[in-house]
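Researcher: Here's my situation. A collaborator sent me these components and asked whether they could plausibly form a single complex. I don't have experimental data yet, so a predicted model of the whole assembly would be a useful starting point for our discussion.
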Amino acid sequence: MTFSLILEQAFNGLQAGVTLFLVAAGLTLILGIMDFVFLAHGAQVMIGAYAATAISLATGSFYLGILGAIPVTFVCGYLLEFLIIRHLYRRDHMDQVLATFGLILFFNEMIRIGFGPAALFSDLPTSLSGFVEILPDVPYPTYRLAVIVVGLLLAIGIHLFVSRTKLGAMVRAGASNPDMTAALGINISILFRFIFATGACLAGIAGMALAPITAVQPGMGEPLLILSLVVIIIGGIGSVRGAFIAAILVGLVDTLGRVFLPAMLRLVMDQSAADGAGPALASMLVYILMAVVLVFRPTGLFPVKG
Amino acid sequence: MTHPARKPTLIRLFIDSVMAHRLLWALLGLFALFPIVTIIFDQPFWNDIAMRIMVLGMAAMGLNLALGYGGMVSFGHAAFIGIGAYSVGICDYYGLTNGWAHFAISMAVCAGLGLVIGILSLRTSGIYFIMITLAFAQMLFFLFVSLETFGGDDGMSIDRADFLMIDLYEPLRLYFLIWLVLVIVASFLMFIVHSRFGVTLRGIKSNEQRIEAMGLTPLHYKITAYVISAVICGIAGTLFANWQEYVSPDIMHWTRSGELMIIIILGGLGTVAGPLLGAIVFLLLEEFLPELLHLFAPAYAENWMIIFGPLLVVVVLFGRGGISGLITTYMPKKSDQQVRHD
């Protein structure tokens, strides 16, 4: 177990973390401001990935794919909010779970009809398919590095937007007390439609970023959805800063756990048992983390409402 | 409810609860007679669907005690179904084939786990509670994926258990075992719902502070309800394993917890009969939507979820109170009258 392996895996964890943050950033506001359990957020990831892949396969350009997919996901989120979601804000959590569960089934099936059940694969442009030396003799895939950089830039952008702009102040006010914000003359329903579409778009960008390095297939968003829910709960519902810290934490714990837990298990049990149990036990780690956080801080690390 | 002046003896309570749940008794009666229908039409496959309905309906009834009556939106009850199913598989693996022992072990493990998960989860509320119960279920899911001894990801095939004097491989034995357990669980739930405990639980759901002000500790009631619902899901899981003769971590996937919620909402929240009605509708849709689609658009028969998904959205948007809500609205004298008690 060398230093370069640890470094490489830490970067992988970081990449997983920033991707998770893109999914979680919109979702934390959706959960935080309108108290809305939105399970179909994973479908937005899938829509983003499919839009980017389909457009880049059609045009032959990776960058055109991304450029084309961003408006697609934004419009998708906007229409979804306008047609269905806004009628459900005042319902209880159960109704929201049920309706958005139905939406997951619908979107997965739409994609299956449109693109078939098999996974889609797309190629990276040559400019991104090489390796960069992050330290002497420690090569790292350029594309993953680019995802980290873009993800961090977006995270900084979201942070500046939420903490420095007037619209961001409305968002924060909405998250801590929607009724009072509405009473101050801010149109909460339009604000939320905007946040919803932006959140969908960010989730879509996460999907686009993942498209060249994972299998693009129906249902690809669900594991990410569950993980980003974990992130939001750890970070505190409605807190963008909490979501960022929790996303990096979860990304690192998940990735490093997957790599190093089997190795550690091998010290205490025989090889084959460790190889079998390791990956699954590693998958448990993030949930253990979340349960521990919730037991000691029942409203997450950075609660917004107080 | 019993008249305040009347002394609520056990028998009185039981008769009252039976009278208040005519719809449920009608459904249970239908299930008892259903094998006659399958014999007349010579479609033994229908019995399989009916067994699935009864088992999932039973699990949903259990969850409904926590969810519909106690207001605890648990997104992780599939884990208890899984524990119940795996207690058959794991006991089998170690040579213990007695079905009653399986039941005892599954109930004990589910009670213990339900107690621990309940105590930890009930420190939180609202969305946090939904998510922490999901987290515990995911932990158990991945735990069973990691247990290579018991098949890991692929699961394990199991033989139907030995119930003294009942050979489950004989036709209809399993059917009536499931039916009998369902009747027992349903009677137990009816009894609970009408007892002092059940009334307090509903009181907690509508106003927790008030119950606290009356000198009771809501947390104790909630944890008890959570444990009971976990045990019922465990029983359902044990039966499920015997029916399927196979168990894999898939049985406790988070989408199954979602399915249980769908069943409850379809049927109607906070009624004893609702989940059973919901299970009937849910599984019949699952079974016959593909065939229906096959008639109109054969190419898309596999894609029945494209209808089912939006159907769920429509049910939520327009059908409040689920199916039993509709029934009670249109014929209030002939079915559950305990629907909107609060």
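Model: Some features of this prediction you could bring to your collaborator: Chain B has 14 helices and two strands. Confidence is low (pLDDT under 50) at residues 331-342 of chain B.
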